[in-house]
Each structure stands twice: as structure tokens, then as C-alpha cells.
Amino acid sequence: MSGREEEWMIRKDRVSVAEREAEDQRQKGLEIGAKKHAETLKIVEEEAKKKFEENKHTLAALEALDMAKENEEEEYKAWKVRELKRSRRTERIEKRKFCLCLLSKVKYFNAWFQVSTTCLRVISRIEKEKPT
């Protein structure tokens, strides 16, 4: 083969301009598709994060409600214990007041009884000494 024939010979591995443009278009389409896919993934990830945060806040609120209910129950129990103690203390105070009142009356009665007994003794002595 002469040099001239080699110049006009078409190589099989060469790509035509149209094929090259088609390949470039396909590559651009793939790049655009990859970018859209990446953006979609970002959007989905952001939405998932938002829902996760909302669920986290909702869960925290529910836990707070549960804790509030538990706190209410604990507060009620504590209130009940305080009221029972107060009631018992008031009852003890009332009993003490009643006992003191009774004791003072008994002391008064004892004093009266002693006075009256003394008076009776004196009267009986007087009557014994009285000439008949």
C-alpha cells in the first residue's frame, strides 16, 4: 500500500461529529439526571430530618405529658399524705385541748371538793362542839 491509500483509508475507531455530539448530549443528560437525583435526595433527606425533628418534639411533648401525669399522681399522693398528717395533728391538738379542759375542770372540782370536804369537817367539828 502506498502512502496515498493510507490517507484515504477510514479508520473504524474514529467517531463522527454527529456521534460525538450525540455522546456529548447523552453525557449532559446523564449529568443533569445525576444533579436532579442528588437534589431529590437532598430534598428527601431534608424532609426526613424535618419529620424526625417533629417526631422528636412530639415524642418529647408526649414524654412531658407522661411525666406531668406521673408528677400529678406524685403530687396528689404527697398532698394526701400532708393532709392526713395535718388532720392527725389537728386531731391530737383537739384531744390535748379537751384533756386540758377536763383536767382544769377536774382540778377545779378537786379544789371545790377539798374546800367542801374541809368545810364539812369544820361544820362537823362545830356541831360536835356545840352544846346540846
TrEMBL record:
Residues 13-95 form the Micro-fibrillar-associated protein 1 C-terminal domain. It comes from the Eukaryota. Pfam families: MFAP1. InterPro entries: MFAP1, MFAP1_C. Belongs to the MFAP1 family. Involved in pre-mRNA splicing as a component of the spliceosome. Component of the spliceosome B complex. Interacts with PRPF38A (via N-terminal interaction domain). This is Micro-fibrillar-associated protein 1 C-terminal domain-containing protein. It comes from Hemibagrus wyckioides. The lineage of its organism: Eukaryota, Metazoa, Chordata, Craniata, Vertebrata.
